[in-house]
Structures are given as C-alpha cells and as structure tokens.
Design brief:
Helix content is about 80%, strand content about 0%. It contains twelve helices and two strands. Strands 1-2 form a two-stranded antiparallel ribbon.
Length: about 300
C-alpha cells in the first residue's frame, strides 16, 4: 500500500516538475516575443522619426537664405534666379486633392452601399476582389493611360493642350476610389443588423434606411476612408507627373499646365547639389508633405476616438 502511495507521489512530483518546466519555457517564450515586438516597435519608430528629423533639419536650412513668408506665399519659383516660392505648388496640390476627392467619393460611396446592402452574395464575391485589384496596379500604368487616353481626349473636346489639374484629378479619382470604397463597405457591413431592422419596422423604405440610418451610422468609417484616399492623392507622384504639365505657375483653369509639390520635387531633385538653397527648398517641400500626412493621421485618430465614445 505504501509502495503504491509512493508511486502516486512520485508521479505527481514528476507531473508537477514537467508542468513547472513547461511553464518556465512558456514564460521565456513570452518574454522573448515581448522583446521582439517592443524592439520592432522601437526600430520602426526610430526610422520614422529619423526620416522626419533628417528632412526637417535639411528643410529648415532654407530659411537661412529665404524668409518663411516668401517661401510659403510667393508664387515665383525660379531657382536659377534665387526665387523660391512654393505657393503655386501648395495651391495646386490642395486643389487637385479636393477635385479628385469630389469626383471619387460619390462613386465610391454608391459602390460601397451596393456591395454591402444591395448586391447578391455571388456578385459581391466577384466585385470586391476586382475592386481590390485596382490598388495593386502601378501608378505609372494609370499615368500612361492618362497620357494616351485622358489628355488627348480632353484636348480634342476642349481645344486646349489637355494637360492640367483636370486630367490629373480624373486619374487620381480612379486611383483612390478602391480605398474609399473598401473601407466604406467594411464600415457599412460592420453595423449591427438591429439598426436596419428597427428602421424597416418603423415603416421606412429600404432607400430611406440606407441613406438616413446606415450611412450616417457608418460615417466615422467612411470619413476614415476619405482621409486615407486624400493621403494617397496628396502623395501620388508618377501618375500626376505624366499628365499635369509641370509648369511652376498658379493655374488659371483646370486645363492649364501646373505643378504640385510631389512632381516639383521629382522634377528638380536631379538638378540640384546637396546642401544648396535649391536642394534645401526641396527638402522643405517634402517636410510640408510629411506634415500634411501627419495631420491626416491625427484626423483619423480623432474620428476613430469619437466613434468609440458614441
């Protein structure tokens, strides 16, 4: 009897030892993974802040030769004559982004409503991957289509050169449409079904339920998609470079050649020497783009926070 009890005690001790060893291994694994994740976060943060610091330090050097007022509010950009005013680029950038969003949002929101609440399942299974496929198309392909189709078409219709903000806005609207559509659809599909059921039970029609109940309820997600689309529109370079005309001037119309911040940097960077005023001015333009992107990220955070509170 004692021998059997001793065997049970030994087995229990062995089991406890095995569990203890397994627990120690798990704790070591958890600590290792924690260190890996924390280290990765630190490395990523260090890289991001290093880029911002480098671009900022180089860009701020511009103001040792050019006043901030002249740099931001002068429309004259002639580096060979010592004129470094980026107001025309800022104006064209903001105008281009606004027009591209205005063109894209109605189509994207309508497509999101169709896929989320109207389309049969088999249609959604075909259309959603097809929509996501647009995101993977290289921007140079969009630019090539704009250069060979959109620009000649506008030139033939309007009798102008065809280059300018309008063709660039059309191309950008197509490029940011999948982003806005996908995020808006996810926001609509994430809504609780009781909202739709309650609206229909109160006598609302299907369209009244969609536009007056579901779309307003999904507004935080829709706004997030729009802001992300704006971020891509502001940062796009190659497609815009191919169709906007690249003249450093404030456009008098939507079909007049102009330049935005990204295309101005690409066009001039190869012509400058590192450390010159011209080169520093380009870095300052890049810093402006970074700050605009940072502002949009903060806006997304605020929208998400408000949606959580509600």
């Amino acid at each position: 009897m004692n021998s059997f009890a001793d065997q049970l005690t030994e087995r229990a001790a062995l089991k406890h030892k095995q569990v203890s060893q397994w627990t120690k291994r798990q704790n070591r694994t958890d600590q290792m993974m924690k260190l890996i994740f924390v280290g990765s976060a630190i490395i990523v943060s260090a890289i991001i802040f290093s880029v911002i610091a480098f671009v900022g330090i180089q860009g701020v050097k511009t103001f040792s030769d050019v006043t901030p007022w002249t740099f931001f509010f002068s429309p004259d950009w002639t580096p060979t004559k010592g004129e470094f005013g980026i107001f025309a680029f800022l104006y064209s950038t903001l105008l281009l982004t606004l027009i591209s969003v205005v063109l894209s949002v109605p189509l994207a929101l309508s497509g999101a409503v169709f896929l989320a609440k109207i389309a049969p399942r088999w249609v959604r299974e075909i259309m959603r991957p097809a929509t996501d496929l647009f995101v993977g198309i290289p921007s140079v392909v969009y630019g090539l289509i704009g250069l060979t189709v959109v620009v000649p078409g506008l030139a033939k219709i309007t009798g102008t050169i065809g280059y300018g903000i309008l063709p660039a806005a059309i191309i950008l609207a197509i490029m940011i449409l999948p982003t806005i559509l996908s995020i808006s659809e996810d926001a609509l599909r994430a809504l609780p079904s009781r909202l739709e059921e309650a609206s229909l039970a109160l006598g609302a029609t299907r369209w009244q339920t969609i536009w007056r109940v579901l779309v307003p309820a999904a507004r935080p997600g829709i706004i997030t998609g729009i802001i992300l689309g704006m971020g891509r529109a502001i940062g796009e370079t190659m497609a815009v470079f191919m169709v906007i005309g690249n003249s450093p001037q404030i456009p008098g119309s939507l079909l007049e050649s102009t330049t935005v911040l990204t295309t101005a940097i690409v066009k001039d960077m190869g012509n400058t020497n590192y450390g010159t005023v011209w080169n520093n001015a380009l870095y300052m333009m890049a810093l402006v783009l970074l700050l605009i992107s940072l502002f949009m990220i903060i806006a997304i955070r605020i929208v998400a926070k408000r949606s959580e509170v509600k």
